[in-house]
Amino acid sequence: MDTTNEVKVQEEYIEKLRKRNEGKNLKYNILTMGCQLNENDSEKLCGMIEKIGYSKTDSVKEADIALFNTCCVRENAEDKLFGKLGELKRLKEEKGLIIAIGGCMMQEKHITDKIKESYPFVDILFGTHTLYKFPEDLYRATEEKRKIEDIIDVDGEIYEGLPIKRDSKIKASVTIMNGCNNFCTYCIVPYVRGRERSRSPRSIIEEVKHLAKEGYKEITLLGQNVNSYLKVEKEKNIYFSEYEGVNSFATLLRAINKIDGIERIRFVSPHPKDFTDDVIEAISDCEKVCKLIHLPLQSGNTKVLKEMNRKYSKEQYLDLVDKMKAKIPNVTLSTDIIVGFPGETDEEFEDTLDVVRKVKFEQVYMFIYSRRVGTPGDKMENQVPEEIKHKRFDKLKELVESEIEEKNKKYVGTIQKVLVEGESKNNISMLTGRTDSNKVVIFEGDKNLIGKMVMLKIVSEHMWYLRGELNG
Ligand code: SAH
Ligand code: SF4
Ligand code: F3S
User: Fold this and answer.
1) Domains of the chain, earliest start first
2) What is the 3-state secondary structure (H, E, C) of 275-303?
């Protein structure tokens, strides 16, 4: 669907607000929770609000608007939001701070009900499908002085051409699809982000070309299931026009690989069940595609995987890893793992440890299973007691850390190609960058190297970073 008109309407609201705000030196503060997709959404929110005439501040005390972009994939984000809202009440009373909350959590009715009841001073609630309407929501909240609730349960269209304010000048995220159709039984995402829908090849390619012109070096393609890009469209005969040969995820990688100026391409997250051979071949052939593949495992036990509705077995996952290792030179892997899914026994958990030992991941993101209202997992009767979940988590963590230590040791003495991202946060006389395998490397060097690729000799390893020296 053509959304140009909707975007135009929002541009008009931006203009009206900008005129109203001129010369007022207004500020906004934003807190983003959740995944890279949410961070990318926040960049769009920042783009809109800066055009409206607000500038960013890190201190909510200085702000005229406090914005929250929420996540609900696990429970801890809820506690964090409610804690912050409690703190903001005073600022609201003292100086009329405008409070706007958006994102995934707002698609959950029990949460918005709680906010309306316990934090009635919040001005704007908006969902994942109405983010593009933020200028209109803000206009109505401030001009008409009323509470706004702009949340719909209809899959939002993909709006092209919204302003965007990116966090980095070197690395950029590009969302290639929205939503998810997989319904893993633990996961809330399909309920709050709606059904899978892909952006058009043309809009993605044009965005990446534009980023290349602006000097960006690294592109991360984002989606909940990136390797099923355009799959739903093909299955349902939804018309899309090919652009530069792009009609699948593999062809998208190949097309982006050809764009001059872009030096690195990453993507998160692919799903193991959709990891077809053409994607493996594209990764292997395309010199700019990083050889670190994030391949979410979730559990190493076939029965648990079935209960999770992941659609692969332990053996299929390991076979896929073997195939990648055989076909992609220098491939490295990272993963996501959940411990304590309902019904998981100690023995079944051992299978997860077994896969970790076999694959030798570069990085493992570990999560304790968190019950999410509305998901099948929440209704399962055999929930694992908290204490056991924590024990398993600690055991997994210990294994992962010992393996990462081993892996890190292997880097020492090697030469690594590193994209220099900026000054090190902990030591501004040092620079920081990342290897192809996404390891942080700290080294001494001139600031004009920022944004460039350098060859570094790794001289020592630490748990979360490597130390390097310029090589030659
Ligand atoms: N689409 C991505 C993941 C999105 S959520 C994928 O399929 O891999 C990011 C990670 O959060 C998931 O991979 C999973 O490991 C974790 N996660 C999701 N729901 C969870 C829950 N209810 N409890 C604990 N961890 C969860
Ligand atoms: Fe959640 Fe599964 Fe979809 Fe990932 S693939 S977002 S884990 S339902
Ligand atoms: Fe969280 Fe929504 Fe991402 S629930 S993980 S912010 S898609």
Assistant:
1) 4-150 (3.40.50.12160), 168-289 (3.30.750.210), 291-408 (3.30.750.200), 415-470 (2.40.50.140)
2) CCHHHHHHHHHCCCECCEEECCCECCCHH
The pLDDT of residue 227? 95
**Amino acid 188: pLDDT:** 97
CB-based contact 102:70 (threshold 8 Å) = yes
Q: Whose CA is closest to atom 7 on ligand 3? A: 189
Reported as a single tens digit per residue, the pLDDT across 380-420 is: 999 999 999 999 999 999 999 999 999 999 999 999 999 99
Q: Does pLDDT of 157 surpass 90?
A: no
Give the separation between CA 268 and CA 34, rounded to whole angstroms.
14
Q: Is 187 in the pocket of ligand 3 (CB under 6 A)?
A: no
**Residues 10, 16, 17, 19, CA torsion sign:** positive
Q: Contact at 8 Å (CB) between 155 and 179?
A: yes
Of ligand 2's listed atoms, the one at least distance from the Cα of 188 is: 1
Could you give the CA distance from residue 254 to residue 259 in angstroms, rounded to a whole number?
9
Is the C-beta atom of 77 inside 6 A of ligand 3?
no
